[in-house]
Amino acid sequence: MAQGETLSESLEDYLEAIYRLILAKNAARVKDIAAALKVRYPSVTVAVGALEKKGLISHERYGGITLTKTGYAEAVRITERHRLLKAFFSQVLGCQEGIADETACRVEHALPAPVFARLAQFVKYLYVSHEDPEEWIRSFTRFVREGDGVGKGSGAIDRYFDGTGLELEGETHDD
Questions:
Q1: CA neighbor of 55 nearest in space, from 69, 44, 65
Q2: Is domain 9-74 in CATH 1.10.10.10, yes or no?
Q3: Average pLDDT by stretches of 10, the chain with 175 residues
Q4: 83-133 belongs to which CATH class?
């Protein structure tokens, strides 16, 4: 894959599935990829051809699929993004596991590298700071459960931003 070239969301999903299958089964085959992604064989064949053309995988016709060195590095990068996002959505924000996984899959493709890097820093900070991360998460969970003011009248969310410099221009919500 040429430097600076990016993969489509679909090809990232295929590469991630291949990586996960190799980890789980020591091999990736067209039928297993199709099952994992819930797609048909012809779709897998097209994607495998595109990934092979980009130098990310090797595939012997009717045989197994292996990752190249570049493909392995890209698959790890994609998988790590997914894992961190899923953990953030489920463990920090308290979203249900299925929703966290589905959302991570969608967001991992669209999140710019600098934003992802900052999110990764935040998650690391949360777990290495001197504050108890478990207590911080329990406190946030209580905040959500008890109501955070969202939906308690128009402008409720805007009040959170008063005095931060992030409020809408010309608006304040003095009570």
A1: 69
A2: yes
A3: 78 96 93 96 95 95 91 94 92 90 91 90 79 77 68 56 62 51
A4: mainly alpha
